[in-house]
Backbone:
């Protein structure tokens, strides 16, 4: 009888501990992402489908995520991916995605790892370049001032001011390859394989197929590519 | 463009050849920026021109996905500014002639944008302004 009571007592302790652990986990999850009560997502072969209280609200492909995420990581600055009037999807500099209702972002934000549906190419945008121009001309008494700047993170500023008889122009521009691809000396384009990428994702990203890439690059086993490998892309 | 603001006073204005050229130049700058490919991460441009008794300024800036512009002019002058990011754009342009002044500002960001124009004209002066932002 005592043995039964002792077993019962142990079982109670274990049950209470388990319930407590479950509650704790739930509490932590609720604290880190309050929007989980509103939003959910499903992984698809092309990317994510997001739902707001069970109703479909937003579809985003891996290709659409890739560049903003790379930019967010490179610039250490959150970047928008897609938005509607009601909700917004952002790439966070912490390598995560955040979806929220625009009317109350803080209360409804739902954060998930960017790799929740598989690895993504998060290579930093490469070969960024910048141009700036400032020009002033005075045709008589007066003052003119022009200033143009591109910062290291790609932000731009242009200011022109004139009084009297003259003209002032300022322009600043920063560019980055739109698709992250690296131009070569010829008309062909190549892609450098990043960590976590496979040939299927690369093919998806450039709207081609694994077969085409395999043939172009003489790859006998599409499952075996390595980080840093140069993949020639179809023209 | 979701937000467009335009204001003008005095329906008739006369532009001499020099001003027509400057206006055309400004239009080209603004259009070239507006039609820039998505490969452009960010761009800002500002221009100001004045003739005789006038002053003007243009200010454009991009900060991450946010585009912001301001343009102002007083007297015989014109100012324009444009800012473009892959996610938003903003354009402001003003023109004033004679005893008048104009000011325009606009901001574009992925989740909201706004545009504002203010003009004033006295005794035969002319002032107009346009501001637009997207999305």
Residues:
């Amino acid at each position: 009888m005592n043995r039964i009571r002792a077993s019962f007592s142990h079982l109670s302790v274990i049950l209470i501990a388990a319930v407590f652990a479950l509650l704790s986990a739930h509490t932590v999850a609720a604290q880190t992402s309050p929007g989980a009560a509103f939003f959910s997502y499903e992984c698809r072969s092309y990317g994510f489908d997001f739902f707001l209280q069970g109703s479909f609200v937003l579809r985003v492909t891996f290709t659409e995520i890739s560049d903003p995420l790379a930019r967010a990581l490179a610039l250490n600055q959150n970047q928008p991916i897609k938005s509607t009037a009601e909700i917004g999807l952002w790439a966070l500099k912490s390598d995560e995605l955040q979806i929220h209702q625009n009317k109350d972002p803080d209360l409804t934000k739902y954060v998930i790892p960017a790799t929740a549906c598989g690895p993504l190419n998060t290579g930093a945008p490469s070969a960024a370049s910048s141009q700036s121009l400032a020009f002033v001309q005075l045709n008589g008494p007066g003052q003119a001032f022009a200033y143009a700047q591109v910062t290291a993170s790609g932000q731009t500023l242009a200011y022109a001011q004139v009084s009297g008889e003259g003209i002032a122009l300022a322009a600043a521009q920063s560019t980055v390859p739109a698709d992250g691809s690296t131009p070569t000396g010829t008309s062909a384009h190549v892609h450098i394989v990043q960590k976590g990428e496979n040939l299927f994702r690369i093919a998806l990203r450039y709207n081609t197929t694994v077969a085409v890439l395999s043939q172009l690059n003489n790859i006998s086993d599409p499952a075996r590519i390595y980080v840093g490998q140069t993949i020639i892309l179809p023209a | 463009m979701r937000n467009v603001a335009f204001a003008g006073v005095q329906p008739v204005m006369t532009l001499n050849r020099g001003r027509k050229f400057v206006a055309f130049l400004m239009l080209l700058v603004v259009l070239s920026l507006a039609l820039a490919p998505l490969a452009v991460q960010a761009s800002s441009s500002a221009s100001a021109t004045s003739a005789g008794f006038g002053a003007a300024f243009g200010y454009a800036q991009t900060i991450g996905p946010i585009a912001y512009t301001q343009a102002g002019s007083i007297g015989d002058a014109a100012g324009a500014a444009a800012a473009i990011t892959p996610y938003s754009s903003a354009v402001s342009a003003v023109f004033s002639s004679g005893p008048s002044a104009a000011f325009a500002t606009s901001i574009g960001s992925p989740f909201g944008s706004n545009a504002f124009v203010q003009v004033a004209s006295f005794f035969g002066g002319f002032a107009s302004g346009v501001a637009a932002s997207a999305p």
